[in-house]
Amino acid sequence: QCNLEGKWKNELGSIMTLSPLDKNGFFTGTYHTTVTANSNLVTKESPLMGNLNVFTADTQQRVFGFLVNWTFSNSVTSFVGQCFVQKDGTERLQTTWLLRGSAATEEDNWSQTSHRVGTNVFTRL
Ligand SMILES: O=C(O)CCCC[C@@H]1SC[C@H]2[C@@H]1NC(=O)N2C(=O)OCc1ccccc1
Description:
The chain is an all-beta fold. 0% of the residues lie in helices and 49% in strands. β1 (6-10) and β2 (15-18) form a beta hairpin.
């Protein structure tokens, strides 16, 4: 269990589809969100790439990270997380994300509007 491959959804209803992992734990995928910061943005699928930690012998506690490259805005979101298997066998991806938008100037670079942090939980679709 806790094989990352397949379809996942989070509490916002976004759908993430992850490819099989290669022997180094690398994977690709797509992220489909319906959440837009401004209404005139049409959300489309965005590509992602990620990597599972393959160096630990503990196959049930592996951590991972991935980066979503938003196709409809000049921004990226990195997710880091871990998969947990519940008592009833269901799997949950507990993640923390960091969103980076573009800043007009280096002075603006510190501004809260260009980066945000949060958490998301994903369950199998
Ligand atoms: O579906 C989920 O699970 C979570 C929601 C993810 C929505 C992402 S956040 C970046 C991009 C996408 N929607 C949107 O309006 N974006 C956008 O406008 O980015 C520009 C931006 C950058 C930084 C701060 C605000 C907006």
